[in-house]
Design a protein that fits this description.
Elements: H1 5-22, H2 33-60, H3 66-89, H4 95-117, H5 128-146, E1 149-153, E2 161-165, H6 166-203
Antiparallel strand pairs: 1-2
Helix pairs in contact: 1-2, 1-3, 2-3, 2-5, 3-4, 3-5, 4-6, 5-6
């Protein structure tokens, strides 16, 4: 099945990806630079929310499918990769950090596919470390897209206002995410190593 409620949310996430990138190519007379940051960050947050809702609705409505299980992580990786490339182009993120995150996703995706083919996918099931990494990453990216002070509060009194430095917090979180990215990659590789060693031994 190509379309049901959860899959429509996943397709929506894919449609939103070029908007995150494209907003920065609009001329400044159409959208001011700070407004571009706000719009891109907002679109990314909306896209990230669809990631949670499609999984929740798939279980709630009993509409899980093999195609959905394939498309959902693809949409996530495309969204994160597109956002990281934009941040690198805007000089808000070091290319090495983006390479670590994207390289890990490619490596682990290939590893999971290979492990599934040999019937050993349970050895590299998603664990809590990967979830923490994803959470840090998904909070850091919209902060770096916004890249400025974010006022949260109510009323006009300073006592009721909280100012978040999204540039600093986003940078710390993306560095933490990259460290967890390497850690989780080594964890999965260690779990898969007996299977890898066995297959390599059979070839020699």
């Amino acid at each position: 099945m190509l379309f049901n409620v959860p899959l429509c949310l996943t397709w929506l996430r894919i449609v939103l990806i070029p908007l995150i990138v494209g907003v920065f190519y609009l001329p400044d007379h159409m959208l001011a630079p700070r407004d571009k940051d706000l719009v891109a960050a907002t679109i990314f947050v909306l896209a990230a929310l669809t990631d949670w809702f499609d999984g929740f609705l798939a279980r709630k409505l009993n509409q899980t499918s093999a195609f959905g299980a394939f498309l959902d992580p693809v949409a996530d990786k495309l969204m994160v990769t597109a956002a990281l490339l934009v941040l690198v182009q805007l000089s808000r993120l070091n290319a090495a950090i983006a390479l670590v995150i994207v390289g890990r996703e490619i490596t682990i995706s290939a590893l999971r596919e290979w492990m599934a083919q040999i019937g050993a996918s349970k050895h590299i099931a998603v664990n809590s470390l990967g979830k923490v990494k994803t959470a840090c990453q998904m909070i850091a990216i919209p902060m770096l897209l916004f890249y400025g002070p974010l006022n949260i509060g109510w009323g006009s009194e300073p006592a009721y206002q909280i100012v978040i430095d999204t540039q600093s917090w986003g940078m710390w979180l993306i560095y933490l995410a990259s460290a967890l990215t390497l850690w989780s990659m080594f964890y999965y590789m260690k779990r898969a190593w007996p299977q890898i060693g066995q297959r390599v031994g059979n070839l020699l």
